[in-house]
Write a structure and sequence with these properties.
Elements: H1 2-8, H2 12-32, H3 37-71, H4 81-87, H5 89-109, H6 116-120, H7 126-161
Length: 163
């Protein structure tokens, strides 16, 4: 186990998951390329270009704004800037997952697919509410994790102080 970690740089589970994701992406690519090869290639190239030229600057600017807000000193809180920077992830992660879900499922969430109900029997209007519920749940779980971490940190501080 230690030899794999030393040679690979991560745990064997990480290696297995990376290989499985490559296998799944390869399988999906082969299945997609059975039909409209040019359309699939254009979609992949377009997705890469839109990601690199539009989305990266947008979420980088949002992240910098969030860091700037978090880096401001808070009066009466006694927390250092490093602790605030670490807590940004409790906003960043659920926001990223929520936006990824919106990006992947936007035709359903924004009710842009008229024929979907005939295939599944589900009304397309329910997806916006479900996405909002999933987003709220992601932020709620993140808030619970933040509160648990803060409580654990307070207990550790009290034990170290001897109070």
């Amino acid at each position: 186990m230690a030899a794999v970690r030393a040679r690979y740089g991560a745990s064997p589970l990480h290696l297995i998951l990376v290989l499985a994701s490559f296998a799944l992406a390869g399988y999906a690519g082969v299945r997609l390329l059975e039909g409209d090869t040019l359309g699939v290639v254009l979609w992949f190239v377009g997705a890469a270009v839109v990601h690199d030229l539009v989305l990266v600057p947008l979420y980088s600017a949002a992240d910098r704004a969030l860091r700037a807000v978090a880096a401001r000193p808070r009066k009466g809180h006694g927390r250092d800037a490093a602790a605030w920077r670490e807590q940004i992830n409790y906003v960043r992660v659920p926001a990223a997952v929520s936006l990824l879900l919106l990006l992947v499922w936007y035709p359903l969430i924004l009710d842009r697919v008229g024929h979907y109900a005939s295939y599944t029997g589900l009304e397309p209007g329910v997806f916006m509410g479900r996405w909002l519920l999933v987003t709220a749940a992601l932020f709620a779980v993140s808030a619970v994790c933040l509160v648990a971490r803060a409580a654990r940190g307070r207990r550790r501080t009290h034990r170290e102080d001897g109070t």
